[in-house]
Amino acid sequence: MKKFTFVVISFMISLLLAIMVIVGAIVAVIGDITTANNMLAYAAVSSTNSSTTITSQSFSLHNTETKKVRVGDIDIAYKIFGKGKPLILTPGFSMTMDMWDPNMLNKLSSNHTVVIFDNRGIGHTTAGNNTKQFSIPQFVNDTAGLLAALKLDGNNNQPVDILL
Question: 70 to each of 11, 82, 105, 138, how far by Cα in Å?
Fold first, then answer.
């Protein structure tokens, strides 16, 4: 019984630490946002003589086109939006790209090019050849392949932020 209690407590501590790391990463990325008042992801700027008018458009993840790219033995479904330094959001276990908080995506996309995607076998991404043996290294390779296919793999000397 003591061993079981120790295992449960160790798991809870590990889970708490993982949550703290994720929250810290989100705070760091959101802290990058330069204007707290700019709550909308997109703005159309039109100049007339000496004045500039900014017309806001509301952000909707459902209005963002889902694209697909072939990576190895799968077709990865992804969405890309916003402007600025690239930021890829990596989904957790059984999470689809449509489950990200729209308010967070809206804020991040104001100064980042945000990429969200479905992992292998989840949502709109195909499962591949071996549907019984998914693994973390396989998901990592899929994500690296997605970054390469989108030319965001660092080979163009532009760093990419990755939020897990």
Answer: 37, 23, 25, 15
